[in-house]
Fold each of these.
Amino acid sequence: MTAKSHDRVQVVDAERQLINWLGLGLFAFLGVVAVVPLFLIISDVYIKGIDAINSLGGLWVFLTELPPTPYDESGGIGPMLVGTLYMTALGALLGIAVGFPLGVYIGEMRKEKFANVARAGVNVLVEFPTIVVGLFVYAVMSLAKEDLNRYMLGPLSNAISSLGEWTPRFIGPLDNVISLLGEWIPWFIGPLDGFNAYAGAVALTLIMIPYVALITASAYASVEQPLREAAYATAGREFNALFVVLRKAVSRAVLTAALLGTAKIAGETAPLLFTAFGNFYYAPFTGPTGAVPLWIWYAAQTPYDVQIVSAYGAAAVLLTIILTIFIIARIRG
Amino acid sequence: MLGFLLVVLLIPYLIAAYALLLVKLKWGLRQFGAFIVATIGLLTATFFVEAYPIIERDGLAVFLEARWDPVRESYGVIQALTGTILTSAVAIALAMPMALGVAVTINEILPARLKGIFGSLVDLTATMPTVIFGLWGLFVLGPFLHDVVNSVSRFLVGDDVMTSPYTLFTAGVLLAIMITPYAAAVIREGYALVPKPVEEAIYAMGATKFEAALIKLRYARNYILGGFFLALGRAMGETVAVAMVVGGNFSRFTTNIFESGITISSLIALQFPNAAAYQYMVPALFAGALLLTLFGLAINAVAIYIIQRGQI
Amino acid sequence: MAPQMFSWSRTFHRVTEGRIQVNYQSIGSGAGAAQFLEKKLDFGASDVPMPRARYEQAAGRFVQFPVIIGSIVLVYNIPELTYSKTGKYLNLTSEVISLIYMGEIKEWCDPKIKALNPGLADKLPCKEIVAVHRSDGSGTTAAFTLYLSRAYQPWNQTVGWGFTVKWPADEKAKGMGAKGNEGVAQAVLQTPYSIGYVEFAYWSKNKDKYDRVGGVSFVRNDNDGKYYFPTAENVAMGAAAGLERYKRKYGAKPAPDADWNPVSIELSNPPRGYPILAFTYVFLWKDYAAEGYGDAATKVALLKEFFRWVLTEGQKPANVVEGYIPLPPEVAKLGLEALELVKS
């Protein structure tokens, strides 16, 4: 290299370095601007929430007691927490079960026309106002409830309860266990009321499916062609190729999809209004069921301090539960 | 009976689809695609059936006029569609750069110890019940934007441009803050999944960190597209937080983002609980949902066209 | 009404030692009435009586009765005229309030406002009034607009009343919508030169904050010409006077299974007392078994026990949540008589 081209290389380097710093600086600035409000809100929730939990009787009370009235001094979110855990778990399970294959379809088989139709469908499903999804489930539930109870759930719960009467004759010592189960089973299975936890879970599933599907689709669509061909070549069956061999390439994204979707539905309010309805007491899942976001929705908009602070406490609890799930999943996966 | 059959047939259908996955994979996958298309179709059909009474009475006027007079049973939702378009546009315009910024910052700039914490905290906001965002917007963001925007506008044009703290602009900014985590989560995944060999090749060519970031982003373009649609959908469908800060002006058609307005999602959320007391309000709200669906399909059709042309 | 119902439900739960759970959720007056008629709910509650069209569908098969009284106050934000500065609150009348929300009175220095407030007339600024109303359908709006309809005829002709109305101020002047009482309360606190209507508790719990930005207004009762400050006593006075007027006009007490819309019309804008008030009504079927409810006998017994408690013990000051006003005894008796008609 002559001295002249050496100079030119250095000038080019300086210019590129400047762009480098400016560019990275811009990204950092955007990142910070995005994150500052989020951190402000989270810290606001935690500060007010922890304060609230302490003033309302401590963590155990807060997690198990019934919610406070405007003049109570202690209370909790027990029934709502149970409802949220149940409905979110069901919703997430079904959401992943349907969303994952759907995402694989959209991402892997992009060339097909029908896959693009399905992708359009998923994009449209994401944008539905969540209250509308709830109304749809409510409408289907209204149509189906009577027949469902008469032909399926009624006979089923009769069968279970008669089983409960019948088994003690055969399994003596387990008598107590069976009768205990017999008390708990009607909380889960039985004729459904117009408002119940399962309708709520279905509404949550419908909301979660597009989130899981879109992220999974991105993952599978990003698999490089050579890698895909290698997978098909080594795996033998298509099933193995997509789900076993490519696992490493996509599993992180799929995990993110599942976690993000679960986080979303855990905090949803509107779709539960006409499906689960809400409940401030411990009650069977076959009837109106409470959820933490419903309590926050109600309490944060009253003028009574004790209820407002309990809303922040509830939000803090919800965030912590989801954060724990995130951490556990990310460590293991 | 219809609903019962629907529910009862659904479970065997899904089980069959799963079984098919093991036998003939591609056909199994197609079943899931069919399931979602059928669901969307059913939802749209439901909207149409529910909206029919007002379409029958007013024709297309309900989609093209701006009105909300329950006392006289006169409804029109075009102002809500405009509101949705404006707030979503503002939200996406602000959120996509921010999401890219978050993704690059987490992956390139932050030290390894902070990456996980930072990332998890950003993801955590996905679970925040939107009413808390709404309250924050009500108490903090609205007044803040009111002051800032008016100061700037007084300097530039000598007048206050935002009439109140609660306008379409406020809703757009709040939405941007809310949807950024979704887009960011997706883009981060894509960015992190750029294969090692590719990354090494980029640096071997002598790229600066910034240039490498740009190349990796291009590599992750599928994720960026996925994140875009996820965030856009979220913005268009957000009900509660928008309802609390958008200003609730139903009567006036406006394209000025610094005025109070309404979006379709928040209109439905605000008016539905008491809609049953009126004769045509429920159909009008479903007409709004139908309009939103058709608009969403239109956006998707355009997007697919662009993508096919550009062959991303 | 939701906080009061919730509080009653919990207190009753304690009183019955956990035996009876009354699950009350706030989904809106219209939804409450509709879901009740669709038999998805065991009882419905609403800030307005069953709308006439729906009443026709179920006439004579259900009863309705009031359980608690709420009231609505007008809060305002005028930096030059805060209570902490002047020690005075504004006087307003139904005419002025109507004209503000109709967009006819656009500035605070309007002569009509000055005429009502001679002591503050020179300080009223010539700034545009931001009229804050509800963006969600609400019983509060219904009660407020019903009052304006009854008190000021032009309002009745141009706007009407309902859960949501078309506010002329949105188009002609600076009107703004906010979600929930909380939203309106906050909007008025944050927006200079604004005025808004909220439920009593949302003002009384934040009285200090409002005194610093403006205040709450005295409202003139057009029937007796006096200005009333929103207090529990003045509201109770209004409720009793309204019922009296109904009895004088129709010659008898309202029947529990009749259409209560005429009743609410008489109860609104009463002859005396603070004029902007609202009753919360509860709907019960007369014959639950005939209407197709499962387990009707138990349900009816529980409902009757609960509402009997609500109408007697529940009206005692210790059980009434701040911001709500207990029923005058004659009104509570209407409910007890209605309960007699409910059987399984």
Note: The mean pLDDT of chain B is 88.
Amino acid sequence: MKYDLVIIGAGPAGMSAAVEACNLGLSCLLLDEQPRGGGQIYRNVGRQTPKGKELLGPEYQAGLPLLKAFELSNCKHVAGASVWQISAQGEVFYSVAGTSNAVTAEKVLITTGAQERPMPIPGWTLPGVMTAGGAQILLKSPGLAADEAVFAGCGPLLYLVVWQYLKAGVKVKAVLDTTPRSNYLKAAKEWRAALAGRSYLKKGIKLLRDIKSAGIPIYKEVNRIAAIADEARSLGTVSFCTPKAELQIETQHLFLHQGIIPQVNLAMASGCEHHWSTQQLCWTPKVDDWGQSSQQRILISGDGLSIGGAVAASLRGKLAALQVGYENGKLSVQQRDTRGQPIRRLLAKELAFRPFIDTLYRPAEQFRKPVENEVVVCRCEEILLKDIKSAVENGCMGPNQLKSFTRCGMGPCQGRQCGNTVTELMADLSGNPVEETGYYRLRAPVKPLNLSELASLYDEH
Amino acid sequence: MFHDISHASRQPCVSLLLDGKSIAVPAGYTVAAALLTQHRRHNRTSPVSGAPRGPFCLMGGCFECLVEIDGVSNRQACMVEVREGMNVCTQQGAGELTTDPETLSYEV
Amino acid sequence: MMNTETVDVVIIGGGIQGCATAWNLAKQGISCVVLEKDHVARHASGVNAGGVRRLGRHLAEVPLSQRASEIWPQLDELLDADTGFKASRQIKVAENEADMAMLSKRVEDVRAMGFNHETLIGQQALRSLLPAVSPHCVGGILVEGDGSAIPYKTTTAFARAAQRKGARILEGHPVTAISSNGNGWEVNTPQQTFKCQALVNCAGAWGDKIASMVGDHTLLTPTALMLMITQRMPRFMEGVVGAANRPLSFKQFHNGTVLIGGGCQGFADRDNNQAQVDMHGLARYAKNACAIFPLMDQARIVRSWAGLEGVTPDKIPVLGPGAKPGVFHAFGFSAHGYQLGPVIGETLAALVQNNPLPFSIEPFRYNRF
């Protein structure tokens, strides 16, 4: 079966694109690996508990009408689908419950969204260390919280989850804020952006006030953090430094966060060109105004373009659908542009706040490029910083040579948890700009795939 | 320890085996959520060093939460919902190979 | 004005053939420069399956392969590096009587040439060597003392050793033009010009293009040969395994990952340095792997890739002098050039110096098509 549009990812961008595409009369299939629509940000919004609705707030609940519109649309939704490859010929290969499938698409829209930026501190591989995003996922589904947890890092999500814990009646043991002091001054220069996003700013300030009033200790300008094991070789203590002190806190739960970055694996493996964003310190795809990538069949939308938040993602998804509608002959160029205009206005408003947030919460160098030699950089293969330095001394110039020398990036996560770190580290160590250093050369399958699943593809053909 | 804060009634429960021990877990939980509420901190040992590893990102992108489910190794616990009668085991290193592939089920 | 440099030999291509040649020449005091358009081992020589085998070679290659197999175990010491070479057996599995008959004939032919490395084995021997092999397999050919190595490491080892002996290896130097100047050759890159007495063409999937530049026309098809690798698995096999009648090359590394290949083609775009995998071809590997080793059903593929390689119509390389004096070709290894690297380096060094060869390279003439 050939679809006008195959969308990958059921977050706000994907769902909005699907609704818009179906309204235009396009045949549409959406593949998503989760059991239900919503992506990460609107996870479980269709079946949330009353308590959950209360603490996750109105912005989360805003996802419900979108989910409903998506479910009511003509878009075919395949849940539990793990996409392995998009071929240049427009074949999309995926599997569901151990069975492989291939569909053909005229156009493919990648809306796989974002992931946590890796935060490689000593001991971050100990059981008990997770991401703040992970903590929020558990809050959303099935509704779990950890006792006596320490939250560490920087960025709006960190404080949001702490606040949500507070609302859930779960006290957080401490917040270790790694925002460098110099960021505040630089962010003040972005006052126009702050003004443009003042409603978000107000919410953020209220969050911080509530957290402070609850008596949760907040340590600022934290410049070093280490996770230390207990006798069970799991997390037992967090040690950290501020400019004034060296401290330790006992805990079994450490949630790390220093912002989110686009998930690049599917887009890169499909040949879409990317470039390094110095504003957001991550790889972003090269696209035109509508999301058209450097690969003719592929558009990209949502937080996978650059981090903009759920509302921006939804708007971007609509723009991509309009473009596909136009290319498919459902819209004239004038119709596309006319419909796109108000969307672009709203999008500009949403994105206006970004320069302020990106500057304020720009992660400190030592948390992006670790300095301790024993830090695990590649979690899957346990490649340490000192192994990487040694490879560079032996002539290794970039991430792909590093793979050949050390196996860094060759594990099942396919570079997701180490790629950003390795890019910046290798750029530093080799003395080359990041753009030139590049990223892992990614290939299919984009998620690990059972050989039996792959073999079943041969049977069908 | 992780505990349920939803104040929601969690019926029905499913019973499953976790390293041979029978446990009851609310339907709709992922295997990862089940492990965490059972105070299980690690779900596997690293094939490189043998170090214990636990769930990390909870969204399918880190491959830390690998467990053996119904005889199949390398299943991501955060991506699989619990089912009645499921047999979940801590994964040691690279996992085990069953010599009888006919018995394997990839049911989600 | 372009910077001009004079050397004895210019080698085009920094894969294993080019780097092995550079080392052989440099250690004999012959000045040479390797011009590599990307970086050393960027293409086939960096991403192949690493098989070091005499097993199953075209009869014309057997004497060369035998000589290479004598060098391999000494390479770590000769190059003062870790090539990753490990001696291990190679087995080609027969699944039925027809396969066995084919393999039996092959062993006879090889023995008739005076080479005894290939042995026919029956089902019992096969099962004791490969306990995890599917019960339907009836036997195969065994070669002890073959092995495998790590292609990236080996090629880099040759390159470094060559540099230590005075060879220069220039990466990011594509050859844009070649002309003869009466007393040798002039080779242009965007950065500079080289004058040399002898020119060695080890340009892999681009070998025919370089050959055309010196007026030697030959037939080569650029192909993208695919491989895939699994997550770590418990150790269940030793050695490298192929199948008599299906594309399959199969080996488990010490760290437990399993590499699967066998010659299935993806999509090659050599002008853009691109090699894309074809999922349907990989599905075929998967089917073959599971047929020979049923427990591979449980394996998980983490990555696939394709390397650009040149394939000739008869699937044996172009090796030997060109039409004009001072030109020597070594390309078109058709997915099995890696093991031959050490002997190709020796051979080209000998040809450049007009020294006799211990075997015939007549079957590899560039103009045989």
Note: The longest strand of chain C covers residues 300-311.
